[in-house]
Specification:
It contains one helix and twelve strands; from the N terminus they run ββαββββββββββ. The protein is α+β, with helices and mostly antiparallel strands. The protein has a single domain, classed as minor pseudopilin epsh fold (3-Layer(bab) Sandwich), CATH 3.55.40.10. Strands 5-4-3-8-9 form a five-stranded antiparallel beta sheet, with helices on one face. A hairpin with a 2-residue loop joins β1 and β2.
């Protein structure tokens, strides 16, 4: 029962409003604080999940961009070789080392095609673990998945063409096609099958 009391003010009694019991007020405050804390925890969990999803997507995007950047560097080396050779009497070689997972572009200056001089090397780079060279197949039917593969470019174009197949971080294949007839270098998703073997002496080197 609320207790009413009266106080004298200037000789007149004044009614004092009933007070809420202290334990009821504390209970209401506790329930209010508890509900706010639960809401805060839910928001934190949701933000954490969104941040994790965003991080995974960003990580995948970065790996994909890095893969394409490395393959594009290889494509640029091939294009540089065939373009420079067609505009001069110089000869160039692009070597894909499947054992070392690397490639090298050099200008051939000695009669021995298999002798590599340090001053001949224009660029030499390694592929990362997210960019793996699976195999190289030439348009004469030769195939390798563990040795060195060499593409020679002279004034008349490529000595022979072929396809270099890369695997990204999700093991999806991407093909770099060297077309010796059109001198075009293309990059496409998936494995590209060469139509038919062609003789190496179609284009002089």
């Amino acid at each position: 029962m609320p207790i009413c009391s009266a106080q004298m003010l200037e000789g007149r009694p004044r009614a004092v409003p009933p007070q809420h019991p202290a334990h009821l007020c504390v209970g209401r405050l506790d329930r209010r604080r508890g509900f706010t804390f639960i809401e805060l925890m839910i928001v934190i969990v949701i933000i954490g999940l969104l941040a994790t999803v965003a991080q995974l997507r960003l990580s995948g995007l970065l790996r994909k961009n890095r893969f394409r950047a490395q393959v594009q560097e290889f494509v640029s080396a091939l294009r540089m070789a065939v373009t420079a050779a067609s505009e001069s009497d110089r000869r160039y070689e692009v070597v894909v080392d499947l054992a070392e997972q690397s490639f090298m572009l050099r200008e051939i200056t000695s009669p021995d095609l298999y002798e590599v001089l340090e001053e001949e090397i224009i660029t030499e780079k390694y592929f990362s673990e997210n960019c793996h060279v699976a195999y190289v197949q030439f348009d004469d039917g030769e195939y390798t998945n563990e040795d060195r593969a060499k593409f020679w470019a002279g004034h008349a174009g490529w000595a022979y063409g072929g396809v270099v197949v890369f695997l990204d971080s999700e093991q999806r294949p991407h093909s770099v096609v060297v077309n010796r007839l059109s001198r075009m270098i293309t990059l496409t998703e998936g494995e590209v099958a060469l139509l038919e073997p062609k003789a190496k002496d179609d284009v002089p080197f």
